Amino acid sequence: MQRPGPIALCLLALLSGCVSPGYDYGTRARTENDLPLKADEAQIERGRPIPILDGVGWIVGIPSKVMLLSTRVDNHFVSHGTEQSLQEYLDANDLDRVKVRLNQYAPLDEWRRLRGNKSVAPGWRYTLGTIATLTYTLVPGRITGGDHYNPFTNTVNIYSDHPAIALHEAGHAKDFSRRQYKGTWAAAYLLPGVALRHEQIATSDALSFLASEGLTGEQQEAYKILYPAYGSHIAGQVNNFAPPPSNLAITAACVIPGHLIGHWKASHVEPAGAVVEPAPSPALAATPGYVRLGDDLSLPQRPAEAPTDGFTEK
Ligand SMILES: [Zn+2]
């Protein structure tokens, strides 16, 4: 009954999350106030394998595996190949202050990073940032899964062994690295529809990076997982207004087209050598604080004075 509507919407939204020529590597980042890594600190850390705990996490993640049709989702075993892909993406985009935790639970260090991450204004860090870090502390991803980027601590948390998912999460970090008003951009995620823009940017960047690097096979795999994942985000937006059990039908109506379109896109991937990029839409380009290749860096970057109202971002 309600399927034609959501499906049509999903098709349109999914098709808008594509790539276009000329990948924009991660220069022009506004990361001077990000908390740097310590002298002896590894950028990417792994949690110690705990077979029983990771086994429980694998079972808890079955719904995600079914939805995205991949046993690598929330499998709590991140391979060195996925780690290497992530490191290459971070290096290529100069994201040297982003922390990455592979199936790791490190709440004390996350609270330290929350306190020290001056890129996000204290008004946002000590409200939404506290909620995000408290959630990380009380609902351990080592059990619940859920790959995500925490903009308040500038940390990527990965529980799935899929390079495209890891690159997507790092794509969020890259998006935030270019924002002047990082806390505001994070808060905007909670507004209806804005999350889809966040997700589209991260997905487009991951796909574009793989295309730019000539990694055809990885790009095909990325389409197959990131498109249905994007469909799940669309469903999440609609489900905010839908009572159960109709939310299951809505989720299916968004995720299934994601699979179909993702596979179709994967089958039409250009061979290595065709360079593509995430082309920011006019709306993105007009977003306050967004910078991209070609912008005039001689413009003032940020005020020299510290913020005074707690929500003004450096
Ligand atoms: Zn995302």
What is the overall shape? globular
Q: Which stretches are low in confidence, meaning pLDDT under 50 for 5 or more residues running?
A: 275-309
Sheet with the most strands: spatial strand order? 1-2-4-3
**Major pleated sheet:** 4 strands, mixed
Average of per-residue pLDDT values:
85
Total tally of structural domains: 1
Cα-atom Rg, whole angstroms?
Answer: 19 Å
Structural class: mainly alpha
Order of helices and strands: HEHHHEHHHEEHHHHHH
**What ligand molecules are bound, each kind once?**
zinc ion
Helix content: 40-55%
Number of strands: 4
Question: Proportion of β residues?
Answer: under 5%
C-alpha termini separation: 49 Å
Q: Please work out how many helical segments DSSP would assign.
A: 13
Description:
52% of the residues lie in helices and 4% in strands. By secondary structure, it is mainly α. The protein has one domain (4-285). Strands 1-2-4-3 form a 4-stranded mixed sheet, sandwiched between helices. Helix 8 crosses helix 10 (194-212) and helix 8 packs across helix 11 (216-239). Zinc ion (ZN) binds next to helix 8 and helix 10. Residues 168, 172, 199, 202 line the site of zinc ion.
Describe what is shown at a glance.
With 314 residues, the chain is mainly α. The protein contains 13 helices and four strands. It is globular.
Name the features.
314 residues, mainly alpha
Helix/strand layout:
Layout: H1 4-15, E1 44-46, H2 51-60, H3 62-68, H4 80-92, E2 99-102, H5 107-116, H6 122-138, H7 141-144, E3 148-150, E4 155-158, H8 163-177, H9 182-188, H10 194-212, H11 216-239, H12 246-267, H13 282-285
Parallel strand pairs: 1-2, 2-4
Antiparallel strand pairs: 3-4
Bound molecules: zinc ion (ZN).
Zinc ion binds next to α8 and α10.
